[in-house]
Records
---
Amino acid sequence: MLSNTSKYAIRALIYLELYSSPEKKEGIKNIAGELDIPSPFLGKILQVLVKQQLLGSTKGPHGGFYLKKPAIDITIMEVIDIMDGRDSFDSCVIRTTPCDDSRPCSLHHKLGPLRRKIKTIFSTETIADLASEFREGRELIRI
């Protein structure tokens, strides 16, 4: 459902919430290695997040990335909006043209409630919520 770009951005934000601070920045090579994300691709993602003011970054020997915006204020939907937009939530799964309640496709009324529920979840779940799953040991797989 989500692009790799959005998935990688969410994972990187969780990682930074868990392991960084303005005083303890994380380098891109370390983040990429820990999350098994190609470093050049991650670099582009992190720069977008810096530009959007979710992350801060500094250069130099003690440089790296850290959350600039509190994790509790970063929703999953905000990350998706920044990285990919909402097309995957709003576009028709059958047609190449939009469908809506007045001109529905054959799946529109079945998928509509599911899409609304997913949007609600992604709009209310935050990076802090996801990071807490790791802190509490509920999430046993790698970020």
---
Amino acid sequence: MIALYSAPANHHCNDAMNNALEEIHDFLPCRTPPRWIDNALANQDLMLIDHAHCEKKAASTALSLMYRYVDNTDLLNRMSRLAREELRHFEQVLAIMKKRGVRYDHLTPARYAAGLRKEVRAQDPGRLVDVLIVGAIIEARSCERFAALAPHLDGRLADFYNGLLKSEARHYRDYLVLAAQAAGGPVDDRVTDFLEIEKQLIESPDTEFRFHSGPV
């Protein structure tokens, strides 16, 4: 994901990144609180460990959807690509951690994903619609946080996080497209319901720092 570009390509890449980020900001109900940025900068080793966990969980979610909905060709194709990309990101985070002497270890999960998923309906097609909407929100928030963090990080990590923006933004769109397909129409009202939950999780104080936690 980290690459060297010629000047024209870099200009085009920056425009695409800025457009994707503007779309993400319009979609999400709030920005990451400044206090969370302070928490992240003070706990960069922990941030990287949890980031690795997040990438692995994202791949696992995509694979579980592929196993559950084997007759949905569009979902299979989009989730297959997403899972490969998330596992590649996982490998990249591990490589960065290794260079920094950070050991990958178990962590207790953040309240964030569980807080969103507790509102997922039990029966399909509602279940699939909700799982996909939650996936879109998580990908969008990840993208927003990469961009919020990058200006404060060292060059290597900043380049990496900026490099993740494009794929994370595409993942968010893929999830929303699939949600609308599963619902057979617009999902705006359901998205709004989940975004209200997400805003509370992002803005309210949290007990421990994680990549998707509220401010500690």
